[in-house]
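Sample pair:
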Amino acid sequence: MEEAELVKGRLQAITDKRKIQEEISQKRLKIEEDKLKHQHLKKKALREKWLLDGISSGKEQEEMKKQNQQDQHQIQVLEQSILRLEKEIQDLEKAELQISTKEEAILKKLKSIERTTEDIIRSVKVEREERAEESIEDIYANIPDLPKSYIPSRLRKEINEEKEDDEQNRKALYA
């Protein structure tokens, strides 16, 4: 009973660990995407800044400055997002580590409780020996309304085998 609960707990730990690993991999992909966007926006902002230096008209310069400010804001948002995701990944990795240690503890308990094949074979042999000690006659003697002349089929087979062995021994003796 305890063994079944331990197995169930271990399977739950493995499932939780797998979910966390999937979540970590998804967050890492999101970080990579955000980093690529971040690099692209930085290059774009740098290019626009360079172009701003060359433009002297006021209207175009205002639009470029506005676009540059929007890009700078997006860069900051992406940087914050990347930092937040990295922090979440660290937290998930800590949770995964805790689940792994819990799983290892459960596995150790399970191995200490778990019966080996030798134990199972030994217990089956002991059960057979206990049953063998009780003779067939004793078993049938406890059945009410059974005629005294009744011989169980197993005993009949044993008796017939013994008779055949005796006949073969006689034939061998006289041959």
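The two ends are 64 Å apart (CA to CA).
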